[in-house]
Design goal:
The complex is a heterodimer.
Chain A lengths: L4 H39 L1 H12 E6 L6 E2 L5 E14 H4 L2 H11 L4 H13 L5 E8 L1 H9 L7 E10 L7 H4 L1 E4 L2 H6 L13 E5 H5 L1 H5 L3 E7 L5 E8 L7 E3 L3 H11 L4 E7 L5 E7 L4 H6 L3 H9 L8 H4 L9 H11 L8 E3 L2 E4 L2 E4 L7 E3 L1 H7 L3 H10 L1 H10 L21 H8 L5 H8 L9 H13 L1 E3 L4 E4 L2 E2 L4 E4 L4 H16 L18 E7 L6 H6 L14 E8 L6 E7 L5 H18 L13 H14 L2 H8 L1
Parallel strand pairs in A: 2-10
Antiparallel strand pairs in A: 1-8, 2-3, 3-4, 3-5, 6-7, 8-9, 10-18, 11-12, 11-23, 13-16, 14-15, 17-20, 18-19, 21-22, 22-23
Helix pairs in contact in A: 11-24, 15-17, 15-18, 16-22, 17-20
Chain B lengths: L22 H21 L8 H20 L2 H25 L1 E3 L2 E6 L4 E2 L1 H19 L8 H19 L4 H18 L3 H20 L10 H11 L10 H11 L12 H4 L11 H33 L4 H25 L17 H19 L4
Antiparallel strand pairs in B: 1-2, 2-3
Classes of the chains: A alpha+beta, B mainly alpha.
Function (chain B): Peptidoglycan polymerase that is essential for cell wall elongation.
Protein name (chain B): Peptidoglycan glycosyltransferase MrdB
Main location (chain B): membrane
Chain lengths: 646, 379
């Protein structure tokens, strides 16, 4: 086929023309691409570089080791224990079922844990380590390590977990830790990223909770490079966190254990204060619970048992309990009256066994009355009518003021859960809180620590400490934080007339050491260690006139929860006080029979720093005491025993 | 001109033809391919396997093939155009019925000795066939409706076959490649205006048909379009590829992170890092300088082809050269537009750089034809 030259020429021209158009379009497109590259790689480069880093780098937190808690002698009471756990990586395991079967033949694993781990493994990426079992014994770990070749993907890892060597004996003070919950997060205002770690352990109660920030430390960080699937490729750098600070408490774990053991079987609280510096030597509440159970996750049964127990083991009665202080309050009434000058030191009041106040009859505990009685005798024999009289003279506001001066009705600042404020009632309180006018009967009731007055064992111990020293003793629980001494609890003089204080102390001495004193049977015989104290028996029920006429029902005949509280406050030695203490036995009956003997035993243990010589006890009691000492001593762990001798 | 009219006296013969190859194009092809080898070495984490070594072998084979094709006179290839195109259509039909399903699409046919992607081959044979068609068609008939409709049908048959695989990228490339030949041959402007108008209408139809039983594209294709329109909507799902690609590309900056230092590809954030998205690795490691250099090399290849075509008085030869240049241009332009977020992700490899045998061989065959046209141009 022959083509005309025109045909050839025309088409060549068209093609050339259109090729130039095409080339132009192509140049334009290349220009757009070049512009796009320039804008992305040059203008927005920083922005994309940042995104790339975010893609690539993950920051993982390194949880710090929690600070330890020691007693005053350096015995650990909250420790970090190495905790072994088995971890499995799915992709390394191959046949998961087979490997797990082999593992269960070696170590005992809860089937529930196993199914949970299986579920988790299916859910997570194959390279994520999943915990199969926790808290393995060293023997189990050795078994696993020995059989590593037959257990692909299984490794034993070590972590730290909290342990309380003293168990129940310090449960109420130290508290316990547990995994952070959504509830915790909603309640506390804390932006610490550590709290976002699943199952991170935080203090849930007691000192663990109140000293959380000190004990926790700060998180370290680990910057890791991850790939698109989240697999860790390498660690870029690592910044170690700061371990939590160690805390030394003022508690003497040996004494604490003794007190807990001595209170066993009762629902009671006891507090021992060192009068040199306000150190709390023992803060005991009975019954107690094992905090280690809470760390591991308490079983429903254990939890219901604790909750349903009428003795309320979870309550830290020593600091949380608020009880009518009964006759232990009489020192407050007396000091208020003497300071106000409304009663002369040797002035006597006639006690016929009752006092009528505007037509209402208030009874003395002694039916026949005490006859003419002064301050000294009234404290020693715990006459009520004397206080009914002087309270009416001084008035409730002055009494409340004195109570607060002596440490009642105020909240002592301690790192413990729900420290009770108690109540030192006055007129203003009743009108604002109750919306009622204060009546003279209220004053009369308050004079003997009944009615509205409420105090915790801690406050009663402070009361005793302040009377013993005349100074503003503030209870101190923390001795050292990271080796730094915390301020002493010894304050200035209370500004109470020293002669008056001396009279009150002398009367308290006779309570224990005079034949007619209410706590004479619980005296300390050792020379120079004599104890001064005051009994208290506070009613939790009303005695009706009919009952009184028929004769007041004996405590033993009442159901437990209607019996009187037994209280005792004391300090010793009388002439050079070293320790002040309080004992409250809930529904224990009489202060002299239920609380005073316990108080004496505790005091002797504190004074002697261990079992006291039997000669310190009245000869009639010695056999029984020896028996009791042997029993309790067996309970005290050898570590605590030997360390306390140092 | 029929081959009888070629002034064969001035056409080089024997091995002398080697001297008359379009050497700048050969050099540029080697340069571009070398970029590819470097990147494949890098994305493998500094290893010649699994990608760089096979790619080099294929390139060597392809270059040899290119030279062999260049040695064969262009008129022979013109006479083969119909055969080639017919064969391609048969192979495409073969894929339809006997093809292997790979990554959700039916693209491969296993001939026993080679796994062939006929859609790639069609890119060249269609251009060849249309060039031959317009070489045969008298110049004054080219805008006649019948003679326009005929090539349109030739284009649409393979386009629909490819679409049904489904391979949207190749279908678009075929469509645009074919249309380019028609445009270059001088078909009247009005036809293109009409088709573009209809195209806009079709796009509207495609979107309107979404969700109805007769929807025109597969769901994943719609999702890709959505993603393209706003990838940030779903950065971990549908938009993951393009978002990660842009991050890698953008983070390269002026000069890049350095060879083998690209964190995004090394850590597998980049999808298809050795195939369709290899440009992002290059851009990350060599920065704007490296990326633009590659773009410029591509442009030079196209430019040398266009110059060669303009200097060639043979209608078939110049149409073929321009068509192949356009196909090549479409490859890299669509790929780059795709990874820079200017176009939807349609699965077009970066020519000579992306790992893959079919595309490279086919392109080098195409350049063989370009070389043949250059060597045997009428003088």
């Amino acid at each position: 086929m022959k083509r005309s030259p025109k045909d050839v020429m025309d088409s060549a021209r068209t093609i050339s023309r259109r090729a130039l158009v095409m080339g132009g379009v192509q140049l334009g497109v290349v220009g757009v691409l070049g512009w796009r590259l320039q804008s992305m790689q040059v203008e927005q480069a920083d922005q994309f570089r940042l995104l790339a880093e975010e893609n690539r780098i993950n920051i993982r937190l390194l949880p710090p080791a929690r600070g330890l808690i020691f007693d005053r002698n350096g015995i650990p009471i909250a420790d970090n224990e190495q905790n072994y756990r088995v971890v499995m990586v799915r992709e390394d395991a191959g046949d998961i079922g087979e490997v797990l079967a082999r593992l269960t033949r070696l170590v005992d694993i809860d089937p529930d844990d196993l199914t949970r781990a299986m579920d988790e493994m299916q859910r997570r990426s194959p390279f994520v380590p999943v915990t199969i079992a926790d808290r393995l014994s060293w023997e189990d770990v050795a078994q696993i390590n020995l059989n590593t070749p037959t257990l692909p993907g299984i490794t034993a890892e070590v972590g730290l977990s909290r342990v309380y060597p003293a168990g129940a004996d310090l449960a109420h003070v130290v508290g316990y830790v547990g995994p952070v919950s959504d509830y915790d997060l909603s309640r506390i205002d804390d932006s610490d990223p550590l709290l976002q770690i699943p199952k991170f352990q935080i203090g849930k109660s007691g000192a663990e909770n109140k000293l959380e920030r000190t004990l926790r430390g700060s998180a370290g960080t680990r910057r890791i490079e991850v790939n698109a699937a989240g697999r860790i490729m390498r660690e870029l750098d690592r910044k170690e966190g700061e371990a939590g600070k160690d805390i030394q408490l003022t508690l003497d774990s040996r004494l604490q254990t003794y007190v807990q053991a001595r209170l066993e079987g009762q629902s009671a609280g006891a507090v021992v204060i060192d009068l040199e510096n306000g150190d709390l030597r023992a803060v005991a509440s009975a019954p107690a619970f094992d905090p280690n159970k809470f760390v591991r996750g308490i079983s429903v049964k254990d939890w219901t048992d604790l909750n349903d127990n009428k003795y309320r083991p979870l309550a830290a009665k020593a600091v949380q309990g608020a009880y009518p202080p009964g006759s232990t309050f009489k020192m407050v009434t007396a000091l208020a009256a003497f300071e106000a000058g409304v009663v002369a030191p040797d002035e006597t009041v006639y006690c016929p066994g009752y006092t009528d106040v505007y037509g209402i009859r208030f009874h003395c505990w002694k039916r026949g009355g005490h006859g003419n009685i002064n301050l000294h005798e009234s404290l020693k024999q715990s006459c009520d009518c004397y206080y009914y009289e002087i309270a009416q003279r001084v008035g409730i506001d002055k009494m409340a003021e004195m109570a607060r001066k002596l440490g009642l009705g105020i909240k002592h600042d301690l790192p413990l859960s729900a420290v009770a404020q108690g109540l030192a009632p006055d007129k203003a309180w009743k009108s604002t809180v109750r919306g009622e006018e204060w009546r003279i009967g209220d004053t009369v009731n308050a004079s003997i620590g009944q009615g509205y007055v409420l105090a915790s064992p801690l406050q009663l111990a402070v009361l005793s400490a302040r009377i013993a020293t005349g100074r503003e003793v503030t209870p101190r629980l923390i001795r050292l934080i990271n080796g730094v001494e915390q301020p002493s609890g010894m304050g200035d003089s209370l500004g109470i007339n020293e002669n008056t204080l001396r009279r009150v102390r002398a009367s308290m001495n006779d309570v224990c050491n005079h034949r007619r004193g209410t706590a004479y049977r619980s005296r300390i015989l050792a020379e120079g260690q004599e104890m001064a104290g005051k009994t208290g028996t506070s009613q939790v029920r009303r005695i009706t006139p009919e009952e009184r006429a028929a004769g007041v029902t004996k405590n033993e005949d009442l159901p437990w929860e209607r019996r009187d509280h037994a209280l005792f406050v004391s300090f010793a030695p009388y002439d050079n006080p070293r320790y002040a203490l309080s004992v409250v036995v809930e529904h224990g009956g009489g202060g002299s029979s239920a609380a005073a003997p316990i108080a004496r035993d505790i005091m002797l243990q504190a004074l002697y720093g261990g079992p006291p010589p039997l000669e310190a006890y009245p000869s009639a009691d010695r056999d029984r005491i020896a028996e009791q000492q042997k029993r309790i001593e067996a309970r005290i762990p050898p570590g605590a025993r030997s360390r306390s001798q140092v | 001109m029929s081959y009888l009219e070629y002034n064969t006296k001035f056409v080089p013969t024997g091995f002398r033809k080697l001297l008359y190859l379009n050497w700048p194009v050969v050099m540029l092809l080697i340069a571009v391919a070398s970029f590819g080898f470097l990147m494949l070495y890098s994305v493998a984490g500094g290893a010649t396997n699994p990608w760089m070594e096979p790619q080099m072998k294929r390139f060597a084979v392809g270059m040899v093939l290119m030279v062999i094709i260049a040695m064969v006179p262009i008129w022979f290839w013109r006479n083969m155009a119909f055969l080639g195109f017919g064969g391609s259509i048969i192979l495409l039909l073969g894929v339809e019925f006997f093809g292997e399903v790979n990554m959700g699409a039916q693209r491969w046919i296993n001939l026993g000795f080679i796994r062939l992607q006929p859609s790639e081959l069609t890119k060249i044979t269609l251009v060849m066939f249309l060039a031959a068609y317009y070489d045969w068609l008298p110049n004054n008939k080219k805008s006649h409706p019948f003679w326009v409709l005929l090539p349109v049908l030739f284009i649409l048959v393979p386009v629909f076959l490819v679409l049904s695989q489904p391979d949207l990228g190749t279908a678009l490339l075929l469509l645009m490649g074919g249309a380019t030949i028609m445009f270059l041959a001088g078909v009247h402007w009005a036809y293109f205006a009409t088709v573009i108008g209809a195209g806009v209408g079709a796009v509207v139809a495609v979107f309107e048909s979404r969700g109805t039983p007769w929807q025109l594209l597969k769901d994943y294709q719609y999702r890709r379009i959505d993603t393209f329109l706003d990838p940030s909507n779903d950065p971990l799902g549908a938009g993951y590829h393009i978002t990660q690609a842009k991050i890698a590309l953008g983070s390269g900056g002026w000069t890049g992170r350095g060879f083998m230092q690209g964190t995004q590809s090394r850590l597998n954030f980049l999808p298809e890092k050795h195939t369709d998205f290899i440009f992002t690795t290059l851009a990350e490691e060599f920065g704007f300088v490296g990326a633009f250099t590659l773009l410029f090399l591509y442009l030079l290849i196209v430019a040398f082809c266009v110059i060669s075509a303009l200097n060639n008085r043979d209608r078939f030869a110049s149409l073929l050269t321009l068509g192949i240049a356009m196909t090549f241009f479409l490859f890299f332009a669509v790929n780059m537009a795709m990874v820079t977020g200017l176009a939807p992700v349609v699965g077009v490899p970066l020519p000579l750089v992306s790992y893959g045998g079919s595309a490279m061989l086919v392109l080098l065959v195409g350049f063989g034809l370009v070389q043949s046209a250059h060597v045997h141009r009428p003088r």
